[in-house]
Amino acid sequence: MQINFTKLSGAGNDFIVIDNRSRALQLTGHQINALCRRRTGIGADGLILMEPSARFDFSMQYYNADGLPGSMCGNGGRCAAYFAYASGVPSAEKGRYSFEANGNRYDAAIIGPELVRLHMLDPEDFRDGLPVEGGLCHYVNTGSPHAVIYTSPGELDSLDVYTEGCTVRHRKDLFPEGTNVNFLEITSPDSLSVRTFERGVEDETLACGTGAVAAALMSYRLGKVTSPTVKVKVRSGDILEVAFSENLKTVTLCGPAKIIYQGTVELP
């Protein structure tokens, strides 16, 4: 069986996006994993099925590269909105979309060429000073679970994110369901750099939207940045902008989202 797909990148986070509003396609976890596998498949950090919604413009079904359903993906949500815009999916207002993911409503706007702003959920479950190998970490859920670890100046670029991230990700005593792991360096009162080990990909990715949100919120909460609008440089070199109110609500994630290519693949 052949299926049509579109490959998109959200600041380096890459996704296979498939229009499944007809609900004709039923993918198994094995098939999703095979499609996302690099070198032998299309290759992606995750797969998104755009499906119909009774309440909103569409529903986003997100799967991690391992083939399992994922929690919210911020860059994936931005890419889904851009895909809807580029594909002519109807909405009440051109360039603005409301969609559901994991039972929650998200609102997105195309605010420039290949530039998408997404309203995120309010953060939950802030935790500080959790003991991990080599020091302490912090934790917050921004739609997905995230550990936050601060690095010394100049350390981030040479850090072994895979090894250290994998260790913290599997700390079942602290994170029974696992966690994403973000390593941060503060670069100014309103900017930081972050590298992320993503659960479900089980490796470092070039960007993570909910991770950028976690990094910005935690840094403001701890007084490490002083502006409620934070520029977050990710591994790809792109900049994501995270904005929020002083009480850490009304969170938005803004950054690039673009179509890389379109194609047809034989379903494994």
Key descriptive features of the protein:
about 270 residues, alpha+beta, Diaminopimelate Epimerase, Chain A, domain 1, 2 domains, 17-stranded mixed beta sheet, 4 helices, about 45% strand
Description:
The protein has 268 residues and is an alpha+beta fold. The protein folds into two domains: 2-119 and 257-266, Diaminopimelate Epimerase, Chain A, domain 1 (Roll); 124-250, Roll (Diaminopimelate Epimerase, Chain A, domain 1). Helices cover 16% and strands 43% of the residues. It contains four helices and 17 strands. The chain has a 17-stranded mixed β-sheet that branches. The longest helix has 14 residues, at 74-87. The model has no long low-confidence stretch (mean pLDDT 97).
Summarize the structure.
This protein is α+β, with helices and mostly antiparallel strands. The chain is built from four helices and 17 strands. It has a 17-stranded mixed beta sheet that branches.
Layout of SSEs?
Layout: E1 2-10, E2 13-19, H1 29-36, E3 46-51, E4 58-64, H2 74-87, E5 96-101, E6 104-112, E7 115-119, E8 124-132, E9 135-141, E10 145-150, H3 161-169, E11 180-188, E12 191-198, E13 203-205, H4 209-221, E14 229-233, E15 239-243, E16 252-256, E17 258-266
Parallel strand pairs: 2-3, 4-5, 10-11, 12-14
Antiparallel strand pairs: 1-2, 1-17, 3-4, 5-6, 6-7, 7-16, 8-9, 9-10, 11-12, 12-13, 14-15, 15-16
